[in-house]
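User:
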Amino acid sequence: MPVSDGAGKVVAVGPDVRRVRRGDRVTAALFPRWLDGPLEPAYLPQLGGSLDGMLTELAILPEDALVSIPDHLSYAEAATTACPPPRGGAARAYRWVRRRARSKLGSLPVV
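Assistant: Predicted structure:
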């Protein structure tokens, strides 16, 4: 299954899942097994490459691979944010800037 970019709503969870709930809006990290630290060969399997991708109606993913979507982003916008580093580099950077810099919607942070 090709394509690494995707976003959607959680429709079901397993009994041991704690990080996401049914109904959560999420996207998935490109390297779902790379949670932190340096990128190593064990973490190289990637969505749309050696792992099934997101060009599907439903996908089964580990909860650690999921990144929550900010409310004001559409699914199409959010699908482009889950690139490295771990847990969605763009999504993580966006949240950090919004919280730390206390930026407001429409502002343009310069780093």
